[in-house]
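From the methods appendix. Each design record in this collection lists the tokenized structure first, followed by the designed amino acid sequence. Records were kept in a plain field format so they could be parsed without special tools. The example shown here is representative of the layout used throughout.

RECORD:
FOLD TOKENS (559 positions):
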């Protein structure tokens, strides 16, 4: 009973302090009343809730008590009672209404409070942050992005809590800020530039998915829209180059780096299409990666060759001349002189495609490499030298790969007929799905072989014509479109498919289907390994690991 009486007395005092301050013309003369409100924040639950309303309401009138008042209010934000925390959080934006100098600190606090576990509390944090973003978007975004930076200056003890906060801040920016960019980023030019700079400053420690999130956002800004000058598009490529770590020595045993390079190269290709320079990527390929190509894991070799093929269209003549010798050497590795059973036609397709597009940019470079007689009038034509051995070797390899591709085409066509029979005989949806995937692989294989034949045919003459346009559609590009609608490639993007997914083996139902209409030779599957991979700039590989702490986490670094 005594406690209830004390509680009532505290509430009455708070109302009294509030009334005096409301009525006072010069509120700064009522410092004792405001101090009483601050002290009452240590009282009962009801007293704390009322104090959480009054402290920010009269905050601007007592600058000498600002630190004390703000600290007391922050304790209320961490109170054990949900009602107190929610009321205190709702009051945080009021501290900045007339005293904007506190806005960065309040946004920083709200950013830490995003890890709140209760929905009501989290909703209050979101609304408070949105209120401050609308008041001063520049200062608010700057404060929020401080939670996304590098971990280098954080000790192990703080790291887990920081990771959790960082994750929630990223989610808030993705879900609440980015969708409202048209409303929040005003004036548009100034604020789009500001948020671009914030993104660029905070990419040192991002995962693959986070980097893709930021790049997709930057692409959506008017700053980098369809009418943007080439120098702005180059700025995006430079951001990607930094993430690809092109200034570092390549370590062939560092799987993370090769994954990052391939992902970033894929991400940069649309910007090469818009005129940005691909020089740094091609230079790194030529000097750092191609020389150790044989030491790369097999699945990474295929991914790299696909990326090389896709970006070869956008090589400048000087880059093409530098890279072409390495491509010819790799072509000779895959285009064997004698017929063998096991050959990866997808790799041959990639390299022939890259060869055509690079040679189209610098045709006379092929004279010494392949024995051609292309006249440009430049000393680099080297027409007085004898390269007949190179020509004989190269054209023999072309003939051999043509014969192998034709034989594979025949085998694949037979396999397709058997798959059609198997599909008619299949009884379950699982069986049909397996056969459907096998048919997609066969279709892709046929495309690959047909592409190879289309690209070798023009190369037999002494002065061949090189394909420099996009009339050849890369086989996996078309397969990706088909697979997207059928659910093929259910694994993480860019990862090597399992035998069950690629070859149709691994379950009893699958084995029955393959017995009814499987491909005539297991080598067919290996010949086109990776064709049905769904590939994208993001790749789904996490370039670095993150811990992800959970829970409220008391004692956060507010102050």
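DESIGN:
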């Amino acid at each position: 009973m005594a406690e209830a009486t004390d509680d009532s007395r505290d509430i009455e005092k708070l109302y009294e302090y509030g009334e005096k301050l409301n009525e006072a013309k010069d509120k700064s003369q009522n410092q004792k009343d405001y101090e009483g409100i601050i002290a009452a924040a240590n009282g009962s639950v009801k007293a704390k809730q009322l104090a959480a309303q009054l402290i920010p309401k009269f905050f601007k009138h007592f600058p000498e008590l600002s630190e004390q008042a703000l600290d007391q209010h922050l304790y209320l934000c961490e109170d054990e009672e949900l009602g107190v925390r929610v009321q205190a959080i709702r009051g945080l934006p009021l501290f900045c209404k007339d005293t904007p100098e506190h806005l960065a600190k309040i946004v920083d606090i709200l950013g830490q409070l995003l890890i709140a576990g209760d929905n009501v509390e989290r909703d209050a944090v979101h609304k408070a942050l949105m209120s401050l973003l609308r008041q001063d978007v520049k200062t608010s975004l700057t404060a929020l992005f401080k939670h996304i930076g590098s971990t280098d200056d954080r000790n192990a003890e703080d790291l887990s809590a920081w990771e959790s906060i960082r994750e929630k801040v990223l989610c808030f920016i993705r879900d609440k800020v980015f969708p409202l960019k048209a409303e929040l980023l005003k004036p548009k030019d100034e604020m789009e530039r500001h948020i671009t700079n914030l993104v660029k400053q905070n990419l040192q420690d991002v995962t693959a998915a986070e980097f893709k999130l930021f790049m997709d956002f930057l692409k959506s800004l008017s700053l980098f829209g369809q009418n943007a000058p080439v120098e702005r598009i180059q700025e995006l490529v430079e951001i990607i180059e930094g993430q690809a770590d092109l200034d570092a020595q390549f370590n062939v045993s560092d799987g993370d780096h090769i994954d990052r390079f391939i992902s970033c190269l894929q991400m940069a290709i649309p910007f090469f299409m818009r005129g940005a320079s691909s020089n740094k990527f091609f230079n790194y390929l030529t000097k750092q990666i191609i020389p150790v190509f044989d030491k790369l894991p097999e699945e990474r070799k295929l991914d790299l060759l696909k990326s090389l093929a896709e970006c070869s269209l956008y090589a400048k003549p000087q880059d093409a001349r530098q890279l072409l010798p390495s491509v010819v050497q790799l072509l000779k590795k895959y285009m064997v002189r004698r017929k063998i059973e096991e050959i990866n036609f997808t790799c041959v397709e990639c390299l022939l495609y890259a060869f055509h597009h690079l040679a189209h940019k610098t045709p006379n470079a092929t004279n010494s490499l392949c024995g051609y007689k292309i006249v440009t009038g430049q000393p680099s034509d080297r027409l007085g030298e004898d390269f007949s051995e190179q020509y004989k070797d190269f054209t023999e390899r072309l003939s051999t790969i043509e014969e192998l591709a034709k034989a594979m085409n025949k085998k694949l066509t037979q396999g397709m007929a058997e798959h059609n029979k198997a599909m008619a005989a299949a009884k379950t949806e699982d069986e049909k799905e397996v056969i459907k995937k096998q048919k997609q692989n066969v279709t892709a294989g046929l495309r690959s072989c047909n592409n190879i034949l289309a690209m070798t045919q023009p190369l037999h003459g002494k002065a061949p014509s090189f394909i420099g346009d996009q009339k050849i559609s890369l086989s996996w590009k078309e397969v990706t479109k088909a697979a997207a609608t059928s659910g093929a490639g259910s694994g993480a993007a860019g990862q090597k498919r399992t035998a069950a997914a690629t070859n149709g083996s691994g379950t009893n139902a699958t084995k029955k289907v393959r017995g009814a209409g499987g491909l005539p030779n297991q080598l067919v599957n290996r010949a086109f390994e990776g064709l049905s991979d769904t590939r994208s700039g993001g790749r789904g590989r996490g370039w670095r690991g993150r811990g992800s702490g959970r829970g409220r986490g008391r004692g956060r670094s507010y102050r």
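APPENDIX NOTE: DSSP finds 26 helices and no strands in the chain.
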